[in-house]
Amino acid sequence: MTRALYESIRAHGEETYPHECCGALLGRSTPEGWRVEDSVRAGNTRTDSAHNRYSIAPLELVRIEREARRQGIEIAGFYHSHPDHPAQWSATDFAEAHWLGCSYLITEVAHGKAAVTNSFLLAGITEEEKQFVHESIQLED
Amino acid sequence: MNIFIPTPLRPYAEGKDAVDVNAATISEALDALVRTHPGLRKHLFTEEGKLRAFVNLYCNDEDVRYLPEKEQTAVSAGDTLSIIPSIAGGAVFEPTRR
User: Fold this and answer.
1) Can you give the pTM of this predicted structure?
2) Which of B17, B63, B87 sits opposite A69 (nearest CB)?
3) Does the complex come out with an ipTM higher than 0.90?
4) Structural domains of chain B in order of their starting residue, each with its CATH number
5) Which residues are bridge partners to A75 per DSSP?
6) For the structural domain made of A3-135, what CATH number should be given?
7) CA A53 to chain centre
């Protein structure tokens, strides 16, 4: 992805701090992995526990997917922030990850500033054998 | 009706992002979909044949779970069915007890 896109995703986490931000990554599949071309900010529906939980309304996803389809790209993955918590997937992240083959980007936001950002590919053929695999993020200027 | 296939399920639908089926209800549309693309079945349904809990179905902009007739809702050729796995998670930070 471009550095500008990467920074805009990280900035989203700073804006919603101390709550978690979330959104979708749109792009194209390449032999080297996802080429992320755009991102869409989503609302966090977990207003009851927004500091440590996130959820995107399915209808919002339906609309994001429809728009991606119109642009000829697809949902490549999702991003969210971990306010004052490491950029590592949690048991909750894993249990609630169902988009096999997609990337899950996590940004640690420490005291309101974006710190480490990691990406994890949800690998595996079925829900029963899924696993998160750390993947590198390559930035273009 | 046209069924939109989400990114993770496209490999099981010959890479297609949408599949057109002839069906009178949502249930019939899903049956037709997995009949044409049998590899989709285990990703959409449990072994008992129930839709997996994390799979959301939207008929146009309506959540199928909240339609009065749910999956028995009548559909026409111009309707769309979106299959959308849920998206959620979070850090769920638990302070260390001392």
Assistant:
1) 0.93
2) B17
3) no
4) 2-85 (3.10.20.30)
5) A26
6) 3.40.140.10
7) 13
